[in-house]
Structures are given as structure tokens and as C-alpha cells.
Design goal:
Residues 1-24, 101-124 are annotated as: Disordered. This protein is mainly α. It contains four helices and no strands.
Length: 124
């Protein structure tokens, strides 16, 4: 891939944890912004991809899992439009992130489906 073939970098300014990489707060903020429509799927994908592509970083399981979900979040479901991961699935994944993190979206760590899956969504 040549420089001219690469997509433009996201204009969103990342905040980073002490190790120079995003912490769980920043990852959750990006995920939340995506679910709320304040961040585009393309921006979320490029932001997460930037961090995952840096071989010099070491990740704990949860931030890596969340970044891996965000990277590729803009993949199309097919030629007819829509996305491989629909809005309902995004909401479920954000809830799962919060439960894994120790948040309060679900009692006792039990995952709950926040919204029915939409057409084109695949089950979690």
C-alpha cells in the first residue's frame, strides 16, 4: 500500500493513559460516542486500528478485546448496504465492555440484551 492509498487519519484527538496508549476510559468514551452517533464508524475503525497496528504496545485482555471490536466496525454487510455489525450489536458490545470492566449495566455480571437485534445484525 502506498501513502496515497492510505485513508486519511482521524481528526479526533486521542487522550492516552500513562503508557502512551488509550486507557479504558478513552476506549469506553470512543465506544459510547460511536453508539450515540457522535463518532462515525470510519473514525472509530481508524482510531482503533492505529493502536492495534503499533507492535510496540502491550495490551491487557479487555482493552485489546474492545479495540479489536472497534477496528473493523465499518465493514459492510454486503453490496446492498448496512454494516456487518449493526447498531443493536454495538449497544450490546458496549454493555458487555462495561460489565467486563466492572460497570453496572448488568447485575452480577450477567449479560442482558439491551435492544432486539436489527435486520442484518448477527447474534453476539
Amino acid at each position: 500500500m502506498t501513502e496515497g492509498d492510505r485513508p486519511a487519519r482521524s481528526t479526533a484527538t486521542p487522550t492516552t493513559g500513562a503508557g502512551g496508549q488509550p486507557d479504558l476510559d478513552e476506549i469506553e468514551a470512543r465506544f459510547t460516542a460511536l453508539v450515540e452517533g457522535r463518532l462515525s464508524r470510519d473514525e472509530a475503525d481508524r482510531w482503533a486500528g492505529r493502536w492495534l497496528a503499533d507492535d510496540g504496545l502491550v495490551w491487557d485482555e479487555l482493552p485489546y478485546w474492545a479495540l479489536d471490536l472497534l477496528h473493523g466496525i465499518d465493514l459492510p454487510a454486503g453490496p446492498d448496504g448496512g454494516h456487518l455489525h449493526g447498531d443493536g450489536q454495538l449497544r450490546c458490545r458496549l454493555a458487555e465492555f462495561r460489565v467486563r470492566r466492572g460497570g453496572s449495566d448488568s447485575p452480577s455480571g450477567v449479560l442482558v440484551r439491551l435492544a432486539p437485534l436489527e435486520d442484518g445484525d448477527q447474534s453476539a
